[in-house]
Here is the input.
Amino acid sequence: MNEIGVGSITVVVLVGFFSGAVFGLQSYEAFKIFQAQAFTGTAVSLTLTREIAPVLTTLMMIARAGSAMATEIASMKISEQVDALKTIAVSPVQYLVVPRVVASFFMVPALTVVFLACGMLGAYLFVCTLKGVDPGVFIYNIEWYTDPKDMLMGIVKSFVFAIIFTMICCYYGLNASGGAKGVGRATTRAVVVSSVAILWADYILTDILIRFHI
Here is the structure.
């Protein structure tokens, strides 16, 4: 949990802050066309909670923690350490995969909340400071239009994303072959497949959750 979650806080904070700031500025310019700049906070809040926070947080986790998982396990596979575990009757899945899945299951949702907080802070500072949107109106519209179910959607997605990317990265690590080149190949495949799987799962989950009015 320390390696996967705590070690990723810095990158999540930076990406969250500037993602919120950029999206806030772009939303302001879009709403300005309709003279509805006061709803910038609403757009940022709903988009961050439902989509951007869980998806970008997971993609950052894949780039940092997922690639490290695949590389570490692939190196163990190539150097026959995985075979040594089997020799002493230790399950590689139980010893290598399960702890990483459990750690991601708890840390990805936590980092999603951190991403959301930093994103809202970035949007608030840039939109209210640079564009002159009233801070009280900005916050009021967020409170009025953002419901707990919006946050629930993002958290549910982050739990599912955590399991998906961790299992994919561990799978490619355990099935690595071909020496040092195989380690790099396994890491590349793990990152690419995980990223695509997260975007695909995001669509499926969004459709399911909307159908159930979440």
About this structure: The CA atoms of residues 83 and 122 lie 48 Å apart. Residues 6-211 form one domain. DSSP finds seven helices and no strands in the chain.
